[in-house]
């Protein structure tokens, strides 16, 4: 499957190097020619990376305040790899409040480390033997494939979702228990041992939010088959449409299988600081927490970052009165702007009022419904200096879907959408027989 | 038609269920045995006269303890055997209490032995009976528990000059705590030298392969190479005697390396050893203490200062700030290598071993402010 044999590397080293060489092409191109208002106005506009660039002003002000700059010897020394207690206490309080847990969450169930990628890696390693698998509804955030594979050697079994609404479904790409059962059966019949299920809620790239009833169903399914459930709630505070009604899995009155339910969160998305590298695990299972902590020596957080995060999470007033309202307002405005542009272009899309992205249907712009055509369209966008994410990177089984990120300043969105329009209007002259939307 | 792997997996699943059933049976048997013993003790109490009974009672209590210890030990042994597939299980000898008439010393010793065996196992009890972790997850947990008990005890009860004068003082962890107020790396930057080692082990070796390491060496190497990467360490033992072969204590010579390498090939025939260069091996040089040479009479030469390297594409140098700058909590390590393939492969782990942008920025400034080499003389004053 992979091959870039090197006389210097082991076989797995060669596979690992392949990941680096091939998977990052678009982003490497982007980083060599980044758009900048003053220095590089013809550079590439990034509508592909899911980052919230709207609130740097609020964050930089808060992170520069004097309470963030304290230094103590213990912060510069080898820590408890689970994370400093003061931070885990703060995380427990924070999650209790924002996840609306029925009972206060406990610091001993918290582990902190340098990001959710590391958490996926550690969980894969401690829950699975090499070659075992997790179920994951697809389309999903594709980088998770690498996170569980690099060290853990764990594979993902996709639960493919369809854009077509059938049967009792109420929306496109809906996850149902039947689909989960089918995927599990398929894996078993191929001799693949499935150990867990990954849920992302709010979902990436769809922006879907699971209702409490749905969450309960998925968790019951997992319990029936003794599967671990890893719930990635990294976008939980990025639900900018109030009517959506988001519920964390930790808000459920009773978890069907608390010993096999593991919740992940990070500041990367909700606080727009993906470069700071801070993620947390909450689980009642002490075996899992300890085993993950043991691997945390490789995913250690700087003591300074731990201190700053504790200060940030503790500041409810700032979060509730300054940051969240402003952040949601800006996200909503950006979302409205891009949605209107898409509607004006006649492009169908899914929108759920959560996350930083819109799942866009460009199928009618493909002369043929193949991933090669999808790739060609993606390249045309890149050549026209706008970076989107193509659906195959999310294991979407239907060619033609793209993820478009809108959490950026208006002038960049404006320029990006102009370039998208240029490509599509050029393209749509080619696909004359495609049905209108 | 189910494929072979599925069949094997199904058998394993059946064995697993069998473990659970048999474990339940054993626990129930244990409970029944305990109840029988207690009933016997009570009966004996009623039947015998008082003085003799007191002696026998004490003996019976010792018997019971030893017996329970043996049962627990066998249960844990059984669980372990179940994991390896060896199913020979002997139910406890129900007539053990007949040994009450044997000389007390021997009896006491055997009960002490079973207690010892039991206590040795009890540290790993939790992880051995975890049903949630994979086998490698259990290994990781067990290694953590057994190796960090002392460290965790220390963490929970640290000395403080005002708040906890009875706490532990740590003279075991290698940290430079006297240069706290002091405060360019080459190809790849990760969050600590452990991470650099781990990533190197992943890209240079396949699971089960090995590195040669002169010993005594830092005990943590086994974690760096083993926990994630499953790479073995082959020791090259150095001697504490000055002999013809050693000009000074624990001298590392090429002969010793060759000896260790050949020894490894015999002892671990399935393992391919990666070590010094004559045998076409990679070399990893950890220079993490390079700026902590506090005795000016000792000349330190970094491998990077050498005019020419025998094989630059297989020479990889590691450094970090944990020791030389006394900031082990900062989490920063770097790899320098001229080998671009190794660098790219290690960069794949950049996401999993990432350093915060803020940390990178601060460190940049710290390293640019290059006053600190002279300050390491503070270490010299303590010796």
UniProtKB/TrEMBL annotation, chain A:
Q: Which SUPFAM superfamilies match?
A: PLP-dependent transferases
User: For this protein, what is any one GO molecular function term?
Assistant: transaminase activity
Key word Glycoprotein present: no
Its domain of life reads Eukaryota
Q: Which residues form the Aminotransferase class I/classII large domain?
A: 44-407
**Pfam families linked:** Aminotran_1_2
Report the InterPro entries cross-referenced here: Aminotransferase_I/II_large, Ethylene_sulfur-biosynth, PyrdxlP-dep_Trfase, PyrdxlP-dep_Trfase_major, PyrdxlP-dep_Trfase_small
GO BP term, pick one: amino acid metabolic process
Chaperone as UniProt keyword? no
**Sorted alphabetically, which keywords does the UniProt record give?**
Pyridoxal phosphate
- Annotated TM spans: none
Q: What is the protein name given in its UniProt record? A: 1-aminocyclopropane-1-carboxylate synthase-like protein 1 isoform X3
UniProtKB/TrEMBL annotation, chain B:
This protein's source sits in the domain of life called Eukaryota
Please indicate if the UniProt record lists Electron transport as a keyword.
Answer: no
Show the GO MF annotations.
pyridoxal phosphate binding; transaminase activity
> Which Pfam families does the record associate with it?
Aminotran_1_2
Is Membrane among this UniProt entry's keywords? no
A GO BP term here is:
amino acid metabolic process
- UniProtKB keywords: Pyridoxal phosphate
Tell me which residues make up the Aminotransferase class I/classII large domain: 145-263, 278-368
Under the heading PANTHER family, the entry gives:
BIFUNCTIONAL ASPARTATE AMINOTRANSFERASE AND GLUTAMATE/ASPARTATE-PREPHENATE AMINOTRANSFERASE-RELATED, INACTIVE 1-AMINOCYCLOPROPANE-1-CARBOXYLATE SYNTHASE-LIKE PROTEIN 2-RELATED
Q: What name does this protein carry?
A: Probable inactive 1-aminocyclopropane-1-carboxylate synthase-like protein 2
Tell me which species this is from: Balaenoptera musculus
Task: Name the gene.
Answer: LOC118899567
């Amino acid at each position: 499957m992979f091959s870039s044999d090197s006389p210097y590397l082991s076989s797995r080293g060669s596979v690992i190097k392949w990941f680096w060489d091939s998977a990052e092409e678009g982003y490497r191109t982007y980083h060599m020619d980044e758009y900048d208002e003053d220095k590089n106005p013809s550079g590439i506009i990034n509508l592909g990376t899911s980052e919230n660039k709207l609130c740097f002003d609020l964050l930089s002000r808060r992170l520069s305040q004097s309470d963030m700059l304290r230094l103590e010897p213990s912060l510069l020394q080898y820590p408890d790899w689970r994370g400093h207690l003061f931070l885990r206490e703060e995380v427990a309080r924070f999650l209790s409040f924002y996840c609306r847990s029925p009972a206060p969450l406990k610091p001993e169930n918290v582990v902190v480390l340098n990001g959710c990628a590391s958490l996926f890696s550690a969980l894969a390693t401690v829950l699975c033997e090499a070659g075992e698998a997790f179920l994951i509804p697809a389309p999903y955030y594709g980088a998770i494939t690498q996170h569980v594979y690099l060290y853990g050697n764990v594979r993902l079994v996709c639960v493919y979702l369809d854009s077509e609404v059938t049967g009792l479904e109420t929306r496109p790409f809906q996850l149902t228990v039947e689909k989960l059962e089918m995927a599990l059966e398929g894996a078993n019949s191929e001799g693949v041992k499935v150990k867990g299920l990954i849920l992302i809620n709010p979902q990436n790239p769809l922006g879907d939010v699971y209702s409490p009833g749905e969450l309960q169903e998925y968790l019951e399914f997992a319990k029936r088959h003794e599967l671990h459930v890893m719930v990635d709630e990294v976008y939980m505070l990025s639900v900018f449409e109030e009517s959506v009604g988001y519920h964390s899995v930790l808000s459920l009155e009773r978890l069907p299988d608390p010993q096999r339910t593991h919740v992940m969160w990070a500041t990367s998305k909700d606080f727009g600081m993906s470069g700071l590298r801070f993620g947390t695990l909450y689980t009642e299972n002490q075996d899992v927490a300890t085993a993950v902590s043991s691997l945390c020596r490789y995913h250690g957080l700087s003591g300074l970052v731990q201190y700053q995060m504790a200060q940030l999470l503790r500041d409810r007033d700032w979060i509730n009165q300054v940051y969240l309202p402003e952040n949601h307002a800006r996200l909503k405005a950006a979302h409205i702007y891009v949605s209107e542009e898409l509607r004006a272009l006649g492009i169908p899309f899914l929108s759920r009022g959560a996350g930083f992205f819109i799942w866009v249907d460009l199928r009618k712009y493909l002369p043929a419904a193949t991933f090669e055509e999808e790739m060609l369209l993606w390249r045309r966008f890149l050549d026209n200096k706008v970076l989107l994410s193509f659906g195959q990177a999310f294991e979407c089984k239907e060619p033609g879907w793209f993820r478009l990120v809108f959490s950026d300043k208006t002038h960049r969105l404006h320029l990006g959408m102009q370039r998208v329009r240029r490509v599509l209007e050029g393209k749509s002259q080619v696909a004359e027989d495609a049905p209108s939307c | 038609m189910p494929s072979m792997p599925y069949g094997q997996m199904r058998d394993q699943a059946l064995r697993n269920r069998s473990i659970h059933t048999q474990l339940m049976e054993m626990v129930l048997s244990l409970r029944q045995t305990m109840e029988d013993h207690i009933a016997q003790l009570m009966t004996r109490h009623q039947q015998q006269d008082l003085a003799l009974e007191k002696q026998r009672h004490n003996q019976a209590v010792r018997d019971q303890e030893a017996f329970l210890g043996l049962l627990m030990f066998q249960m844990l042994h059984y669980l372990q055997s179940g994991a390896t597939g060896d199913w020979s299980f002997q139910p406890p000898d129900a007539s053990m209490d007949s040994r009450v008439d044997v000389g007390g010393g021997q009896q006491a010793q055997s009960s002490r032995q079973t207690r010892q065996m039991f206590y040795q196992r009890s540290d790993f009890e939790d992880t051995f009976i975890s049903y949630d972790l994979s086998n490698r997850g259990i290994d990781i947990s067990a290694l953590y528990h057994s190796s960090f008990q002392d460290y965790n005890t220390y963490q929970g009860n640290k000395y403080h000059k005002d708040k906890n004068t009875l706490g532990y003082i740590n003279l075991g962890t290698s940290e430079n705590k006297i240069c706290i107020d002091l405060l360019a790396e080459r190809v790849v930057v990760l969050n600590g030298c452990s991470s650099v080692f781990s990533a190197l082990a992943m890209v240079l070796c396949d699971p089960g392969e090995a590195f040669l390491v002169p010993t005594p060496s830092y005990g943590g190497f086994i974690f760096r190479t083993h926990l994630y990467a499953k790479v073995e360490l082959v020791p090259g033992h150095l001697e504490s005697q000055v002999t013809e072969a050693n000009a000074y204590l624990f001298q590392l010579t090429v002969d010793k390396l060759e000896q260790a390498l050949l020894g490894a090939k015999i002892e671990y025939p399935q393992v391919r050893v990666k070590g010094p260069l004559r045998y076409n091996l990679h070399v990893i040089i950890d220079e993490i203490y390079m700026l902590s040479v506090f005795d000016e009479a000792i000349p330190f030469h970094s491998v990077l200062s050498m005019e020419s390297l025998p094989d630059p594409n297989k020479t990889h140098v590691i450094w970090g700030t944990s020791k030389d700058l006394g900031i082990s909590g900062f989490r920063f390590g770097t790899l320098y290598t001229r080998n671009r393939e190794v660098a790219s492969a290690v960069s794949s782990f950049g996401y999993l071993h990432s350093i915060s942008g803020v940390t990178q920025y601060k460190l940049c400034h710290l390293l640019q402010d290059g006053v600190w080499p002279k300050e390491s003389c503070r270490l010299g004053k303590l010796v």
